Amino acid sequence: MTSSQKLQEALVIPVPEDGRLVLDSCRRLLGPNLFGVETGAVGDGLSPGFDPVRMLARWQAHLRALLDGVGWTNTAITLRPFTGGGSIFIPASVDQLFTAAYLIEAAWYFAATDLMAMPQMPRDQMIRDLKAVAQLEANPALRQIVADAASHGVDRLLDDDQLTLGHGSGAVTWATDNLPAPAPWDRLHDVPLALVTGTNGKTTTTRLIAAMGGAAGKVSGLSSTEFVKVGDEILDKGDYSGPAGARLLLRDPRLELAVLEVARGGILRRGLPVTRARAAIVTNVAADHLGQYGIMTVPELAQVKLAVRRALAPGGLLILNADDAQVVAAAEGVTERIGWFSLSPDTPQIVSARAAGHPCGWLEEGGLVLSDGRENLALITATDVPLTLGGAARYNIENALGAVLAARALDLPDEAIRRVLGSFRSDAKDNPGRANEFSIKGARLFVDFAHNPHSIAAVTSALAALPAKRRFVLLGHAGDRSDDDIRALTTGAFALRPDVVVAAENPKYLRGRPAGQIPDLIRQTSIQLGLAPDQVLMADSPSAGAAAIIDQLRPGDLALLLIHDERQKIFDLIAAATD
């Protein structure tokens, strides 16, 4: 049994199982996070049966008593109220994170039993148990080597039983119970590193920056929601937008430049995996996955996204979308150096950045323009960037501007940046699943993995600018979306002005809904939005829906397949029909 497994089973706290008070989550944060730059632990409590303010106050009081009891008298407690509950965070050293999580859980036990007038175990007994866990977890060598890495300007990657210092070609990994003293500092170094987050555009932006690194002659790698890749080799496929993907990528000895796609869930579950990125991008913020980990509103989600700034090395650049109101609001009071980008030179943030001599990027008279704070550079015309579909896909102009600012922060040359912008395409090779275009029977067919109203509306609005005799769209969604979500997703697709909608079942993603319910919702919404009943077709799977559209295509038509499941099967259907 590993040390972490022993710690996971070291203490069982009898938290009451009562729907009036629910400890929704209690977890360790291994890096910079929503609450600050320090490692620590956080708990999320829901209180449908009690006043949330009273619950949070009681939880805090019991946590303070336990902290004092175990000798953590100087540990600060951070509260974050949210609708229907609240979160509590405490900082802790890297060798006391399990203990910190147990402290929060134990405090919840006392608060819940107190509020519900239930019998309690003696506090002194709980404190003795917590002290025993702290002693079991203590690892002074780990604490010291992490502190030494910070003083040497070297990043660290931490998981349950291993520590990595440095990145890629400058990384070494040890078991946390067998650390060197001293570390071989002459062998350790970081590589240029960028983080990318946001509601939409993360994967495209990540791929663009990695391609720019490759064009500059670097062994460039990325982790993303699709795969982890170093150079031309895919290390593994799957959703690697969390810490596991960062570790897989940054421990590869070939790596010379890295880009991490960072999702909301990873930030909230474990914190950010690194501490010394040179650039961090927030592409945009829109409603998605609200209600998880105590994040109930879009402004709260924006604060989660902007937590990437806490993983910047000194002098690093926080790259933000000046056209996104949520991003702009969340950035108020941020002290990190900001590089703004916008689709207009007149946006207030761009005007201010240029006046202050700060880096920024914007679209002006159809061209992408950059400023390094001293001089402006007309980089490339938007219509010469294939990703923009002749300038129609304005969301990809935004992605390109963010990627360019990051590439410059990574010290990549303008020539490599310009070359990638002029050649990187929306196809299955460069950017799989993002507005990939195919020619079938003289029609234009696009495939996109967009899955929320914001991303679907962006894609369909861009394609609506393209001429077409008839327009087809394939829709299908997972069952854990609400009825309102399904209607909003369908409404977003109508920016394409479809003549035919195919509503497809996702049999693997019913997630508790009866079969046929989601296609029926799509059908009803499509009819309410103006289609005749015979313009809405039903399909029992995404591949069947794709096949139905392909069969009807004629020269001059345009089709958009918005797919989540059966991707390879659909790509095989397209390959068989492609001109």
Question: How does this structure look, described?
Answer:
The N and C termini lie far apart (57 Å). The radius of gyration is 25 Å and the shape is globular. It has 579 residues and is of the alpha/beta class. Helix 3 (97-115) packs antiparallel against helix 4 (123-137). 36% of the residues lie in helices and 22% in strands. The chain contains 18 helices and 24 strands. It folds into 4 domains: 3-138, no CATH class; 141-187, no CATH class; 193-423, UDP-N-acetylmuramoyl-L-alanine:D-glutamate ligase; 436-577, Mur ligase, C-terminal domain (Protein-Tyrosine Phosphatase, Chain A). Helix 11 (348-356) links the parallel strand 15 (337-342) and strand 16.
Radius of gyration over C-alpha positions, nearest whole angstrom: 25 Å
What is the helix tally? 18
CATH level-1 class of the largest domain: Alpha Beta
How many angstroms does the end-to-end distance come to?
57 Å
What keywords describe this structure?
4 domains; 579 residues; eleven-stranded mixed β-sheet; UDP-N-acetylmuramoyl-L-alanine:D-glutamate ligase; globular; six-stranded mixed β-sheet; 24 strands; 18 helices
Structure summary:
This protein is an alpha/beta fold. Helix content is 36%, strand content 22%.
Topology:
Elements: H1 3-8, E1 22-29, E2 40-46, H2 52-69, E3 78-82, E4 85-91, H3 97-115, H4 123-137, H5 140-152, E5 156-158, E6 162-165, E7 172-175, E8 193-197, H6 202-215, E9 220-223, E10 227-230, E11 233-237, H7 243-250, E12 257-261, H8 264-270, E13 277-282, H9 298-305, E14 312-321, H10 325-330, E15 337-342, H11 348-356, E16 360-364, E17 367-371, E18 376-381, H12 394-409, H13 414-423, E19 436-440, E20 443-448, H14 453-464, E21 471-475, H15 483-493, E22 500-504, H16 517-528, E23 536-539, H17 542-552, E24 558-562, H18 567-577
